[in-house]
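Might you be able to check the backbone structure tokens below? Thank you kindly.
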Amino acid sequence: MATLRDIKRKIDAVKKTQQITRAMNMVAASKLRTTQQQLDQFVPYATQLTEIMNRVAAGVEPEGFPLLMAHEEVVKVELISLTADRGLCGAFNTNLIAAADKFIQEKEQEGLELSLTQLGRKGRDYFRRRKRTLRVFHEGMLNNPNYGDASALGQEVIDLFLTHEVDEVYVCYAEFINIVTQRPVIKKLLPIAPETMEDEEQELLEYIFEPSREGVLNDLLPNYINLQLLEILFQTAVSEHAARMAAMDNAVNNCKEMVRDLTLVYNKARQAAITAELMDIVGGVEALKK
């Protein structure tokens, strides 16, 4: 049976762990608030740009725009897989890795060659243990999502697509639903597939293009890819902070329960020790009387 000193040491250790997890919870909550505000400010712009792109692309033939044209034969697929650089965020990384791994297996069963771009150390470590070669690896992009990183990554995959090194590009990321729900999503990035619009919606707004619709669209499509990637970085970053905040909150609650249970055990053990000492004293007194 554990001594009183051992139990007391365990209680102190759990209390220290509780302080650490509470601090991590507060840090994650602060980062979540900041990143979520950035996402909320960015989404209306991205939504409006998507609507404009769909309207502009609706009036042209895709043959003159390589980013809109699907390759005749799909042989090689590029997957951009996102995970966090650190753990302690519940099942966040596990769910993303499972979704990416399932997608890879499905494409390989179809007989397609797959190339992998990994963002985040957790995904890199997983695929490295399974001897899967990464085409390129980036870390730190979720710490501060910005247009510079998104545009560099976007230009990289656009060049791969235009040179026919890959025929399709997909992204595996986390979509932020709410504080407790972050859903892994596989999204097709290239070739771009504009959403079809109803005739009534199309007639509501007409644009005047200068110099031409085709010239505007050629400039618009790469920026559309970059903004899609930036939104994906924001979504995944917010999801990571939310998952870590929830995990640390659960850890704090578990520490409270452990402290309560250990304190109960400590009090019982101390009471048993006091009772044993009293019994020894009473027994000694009775022996002296005899």
The mean pLDDT is 86. The chain has two domains: 4-24+247-289, 31-244. Strands lie at 76-82, 113-119, 136-138, 168-178, 181-190. The chain has six helices and five strands.
